[in-house]
Amino acid sequence: MFAQENPNTLIHAKSPYLLQHAYNPVDWHEWGEEAFAKAKAENKPVFLSIGYSTCHWCHVMAHESFEDEEVAALLNRDYVSIKVDREERPDVDSIYMDACQAMNGHGGWPLTAFLTPDQAPFYVATYMPKQSMQQMPGMLDALPQLAEQYQKNRDRITDIGDRVKLALAEGMQADPEDIGVHTLENAYNQLKEQFDQTYGGLEGEPKFPMPQHILYLLRYATWANDSNSLEMAERTLKQMRDGGIYDHIGGGFARYSVDHRWLVPHFEKMLYDNGLLAIAYTEGYQVTGAASYKQTAKEILDYVSRGMRAENGGFYSAEDADSEGEEGKFYVWTKAEIMGVLGDEDGALFCDVYGISDMGNFEGKNIPNQIDADLQKIASKHGVSLETLDHRLHASRAKLFHVRERRVHPHKDDKILTSWNAFMIAAYAKAGATFNESVYIDLAKEAYRFLTSELFKEGRLMVRYRDGEVKEKGFIDDYANLLWGSLELYDATYEGEYLQQASYLAQEMKRLFQAESGGFYFTGTDAETLLTRPSSWSDGAAPAGNSVAAVQLLRLAEITADQSFFNDVHELLQTTSWRLERYPIGHLHLLQALLMHEWRGKTLVIVTNGDGLEDDPVIRHLRTSFTPHIQPLVIREGEKDAPAFAKDFTAIDGKNTYYLCENFACQRPTTNGEGLLNSL
Fold this sequence. Notes:
Elements: H1 16-20, E1 28-30, H2 33-42, E2 46-51, H3 56-66, H4 69-78, E3 80-85, H5 90-104, E4 111-115, E5 121-125, H6 139-152, H7 154-170, H8 181-194, H9 211-224, H10 227-242, E6 256-257, E7 265-266, E8 269-270, H11 271-288, H12 291-307, E9 318-319, E10 322-323, E11 326-327, H13 335-354, H14 375-381, H15 386-404, E12 412-413, E13 416-417, H16 418-435, H17 438-454, E14 456-457, E15 460-466, E16 469-473, H18 476-493, H19 496-513, H20 545-560, H21 563-575, H22 577-582, H23 588-599, E17 602-608, H24 617-624, E18 630-636, E19 657-662, E20 665-666, H25 673-679
Parallel strand pairs: 1-3, 2-3, 17-18
Antiparallel strand pairs: 2-4, 4-5, 6-7, 8-9, 9-12, 10-11, 13-15, 14-15, 15-16, 17-19, 19-20
Helix pairs in contact: 4-6, 8-23, 9-10, 9-11, 9-23, 11-12, 11-16, 12-16, 13-15, 16-17, 16-18, 17-18, 18-19, 18-20, 20-21, 20-23
């Protein structure tokens, strides 16, 4: 292995992922015209490597190949090598991940692509070892072979690239199909067929949290009055919390579990997962009132504010799975370590509850979990009440946390991404309103203030901030997710600035990304020209930008009574209707928009003189209960920026006055909040 003393050109980057490769012996370039012009001039193919700074297998490939002198010599001789941080350039990642899935039937990171100087891929893979093994080609074999093919069989290479480019540009075109209630039922039935009845989530492994599944099940259960869909959501929420995928010592969720029981996580923690899961647990609490969901949501948010928050108010992107070169080392324990910290009595109690043994459950050590814990039996065994058990466990977790804090922490990716921060803003705002925690709302406000002051350049929302540098023009995800955060902050505060910002984001989103056929492209009209102009429809670990845009535009339409937003969502749903019919489970966040349409949403206008707003029983109900079909609009008397349809609404006798509106028609106003709640 070899690490050169002099850095390559990546040393000038701000991306933590690119900087991790700045001292590789590979002559890396950042994505850009200069690199492709060099490939053209030197008549070389492009070796493209895409990953992110907390990716375990990216680290493995880097150590095996990119730090290796022999591999580097082949790359430097035959290729122009480009490194891309997928979190900064999801547009580039999207194109070549689609190509990988089309060519191989699967994808993942690191993503490895061999391109022509015109950006067309002719071979795509994920992780490649240094040496070939079994059916997996290694770098030492693949690099010279593919370089030779590029030089000797240029027509074949060009033909492959052209066919892939055509397939990516065309996508899977199909005629619109009828969608409606049956589509919502199909999605639920498909979820039910693939549901793990014992441990929640979808059957199989690895197992991802997929919070959009939970959000859909909660809405479907409420809309259809279906107890089984609620049970599916609850089982998933409970089992994930009990599993090792949840950090019982410090809070927060890991990215996924390698097994079907949620026991062994891939230990990296991603900001987007924790933002979306905080929303899912908050909504689970709204539906059921279960204290454990509230506790989980708050522990997630407390972890993020403690460990992932920058001084400027933004939130960092991720924490690595590895520390000191070992996956999970920061998080696992021997039984002796736990007994040494807690002592015999509390140690034995903790080990019983959290599945700690001498043998361990992960490479001879223990991942704390409650998968098999029966708290009532354990309390009886130790002769304590459940209340005392909870109190002692809380104290034990605090002791273990302080000991763990002295360990070497995993690497932290400290770039601030607009789209992921927007998820956290939405999570803090929703939880703050639901749990009446003003500190969460303040955290949401501070992050929002940072994004709107630092991540806009000449009115254009940008992707990333790090070390004073703002980079890349925002994608549909950035606009749609920040629209979500704006509306959640509005619902948490009823301050007009957030509604105004939401309207601005919606209009800019339409201007920059809207397709003539309906829906939104991933990149803006002012973006760099790539191999093709991508669009994202299917949900991954996070919901697709089109999905978030559709749901939030409907919310904004209800508040403002702007018919154009309804029309935009209708066109979007028609454009992708065939996807919703053929694979509904892959578009569950987008199906929220269809469900909202079938639910016949209502707008509740509350006109107030400003006194007693926080104590208003209707507002308290809307914030603490699960009412996604009711969108509140609060107007303070004399407010000049009220939506046009409500400008003439007034407060009766100086009291908070309620106007319930549906289908662009409003009922007679009332000041009887309790009576209104009964009718709702």
